[in-house]
Write a structure and sequence with these properties.
Strand content: 15-25%
CATH class of the largest domain: Alpha Beta
Largest sheet: 3 strands, antiparallel
CATH superfamily of the largest domain: Band 7 domain
Structural class: alpha+beta
Radius of gyration: 45 Å
CATH topology of the largest domain: Tetrahydropterin Synthase, Chain A
Order of helices and strands: HEEEEEEEHHHHEHHEE
Length: 270
């Protein structure tokens, strides 16, 4: 086998080192991500700049730490106490996103696991504080949207100035002890049945009122009509009817005198 020239080995070694350095220096940041630079021989995390999507070259002795910067969510299950000391299990989801321009400050102050270090404790503290103001019945039924807003307000307050934006809180489920849950559901069912019965009574009363009003209207109309039908009007109506019958081509009409009421007596054949 032919030996390589002495100058060939250093060249190959140099090329290999360059390729390794290039591979370590080249960083691609994907869509929805941001990067912060860790300067090994400097002050650690560089808080002055957040690197956006695309291709970047950094010094081989430095490192690019890449994080999601779009809105994202975490789900959690917490055991908390209601206002009367009953243990309640709450399942919820929280939407959040880091402040893009301050991503370096967030990582420097809270670390790469900032969700675990900052967000989770804030959510747990807020949930315990808010849930502790309500009874199990309120938690289970009527106050869900109010509780969500109050937890969100407290989380925002607890994370204020710490480079993290909390967007929304959703309480997905509130789990109570089975006996308490059944009691609340039974009470809610009775209340619903009572409301339905009251609605039927109101509807029936309105229908009865409507019928009374219609009947009174008809009675008033008949009374007015009867009062207006005197003998003179009846006689005029009879004459009008006689004229119309006389004009009919299918009838022969003979008028003989008048009746007791002054109306004509009509004899005819069809």
């Amino acid at each position: 086998m032919q030996k390589l020239p002495k100058i060939g080995l250093p060249i190959i070694f140099t090329i290999a080192v360059v390729l390794i350095l290039i591979s370590k220096a080249a960083v691609t940041i994907g869509p929805g991500e941001g990067g912060v630079l860790f300067e090994r021989f400097g002050d650690g995390i560089n808080t002055d700049k957040t690197y956006g999507e695309g291709f970047h070259v950094v010094a081989p002795w430095n490192s690019m730490l890449v994080f999601k910067v779009r809105q994202q969510s975490i789900s959690d299950e917490m055991n908390v106490l209601s206002v009367n000391g009953l243990e309640v299990r709450v399942n919820g989801t929280i939407w959040y996103e880091p402040e893009y321009e301050n991503l370096g400050k967030l990582i420097k102050t809270k670390g790469q696991d900032y969700v675990l270090e900052l967000l989770n404790p804030a959510v747990n503290a807020a949930a315990r504080s808010v849930v502790g103001r309500y009874t199990p019945e309120q938690l289970y039924s009527s106050k869900r949207d109010v509780i969500e807003q109050e937890i969100l307000d407290e989380v925002v307050n607890l994370t204020q100035g710490q480079y993290l934006n909390v967007k929304r809180v959703l309480v997905e489920d509130v789990k109570l002890p089975e006996t308490i849950k059944n009691a609340i559901e039974g009470k809610l069912k009775q209340e619903q049945q009572s409301l339905e019965y009251e609605f039927r009574l109101v509807t029936a009363d309105k229908e009865a009122q409507k019928q009374r009003i219609e009947a009174q209207g008809k009675a008033d109309a008949n009374r007015i009509l009867s009062a207006s039908l005197n003998d003179k009007i009846l006689q005029d109506k009879g004459i009008e009817a006689t004229i119309k019958l006389a004009e009919s081509p299918n009838s022969k009409v003979i008028v003989i005198g008048s009746g007791d009421s002054g109306l004509p007596i009509i004899l005819g054949n069809q």
